[in-house]
Amino acid sequence: MSESREGALNSRIERAMAGNRRALARLMTAVENDPTVARDVMRRVYRRTGRAHTVGVTGAPGSGKSTLVARLAAAYRAQGLTVGIVAVDPSSPYSGGALLGDRVRMSALAGDRDVFVRSMASRGSLGGLARGTRDTVRLLDAAGYQRVIIETVGAGQSEVDIVRAAHTTLVIQVPGMGDTIQTLKAGILEIADILVVNKADHPGADRAAAALEAMLDLGETTNRDAADDWRPPVLKTVASEGQGIEALVDALDRHMAYSCTLDSGRRERERARRELFEILRGDLLRQLMERVGEARIDAIIDRITAREMDPYAAADNLLSNAG
Amino acid sequence: MSESREGALNSRIERAMAGNRRALARLMTAVENDPTVARDVMRRVYRRTGRAHTVGVTGAPGSGKSTLVARLAAAYRAQGLTVGIVAVDPSSPYSGGALLGDRVRMSALAGDRDVFVRSMASRGSLGGLARGTRDTVRLLDAAGYQRVIIETVGAGQSEVDIVRAAHTTLVIQVPGMGDTIQTLKAGILEIADILVVNKADHPGADRAAAALEAMLDLGETTNRDAADDWRPPVLKTVASEGQGIEALVDALDRHMAYSCTLDSGRRERERARRELFEILRGDLLRQLMERVGEARIDAIIDRITAREMDPYAAADNLLSNAG
Question: pTM for this structure?
Answer without folding.
Answer: 0.70
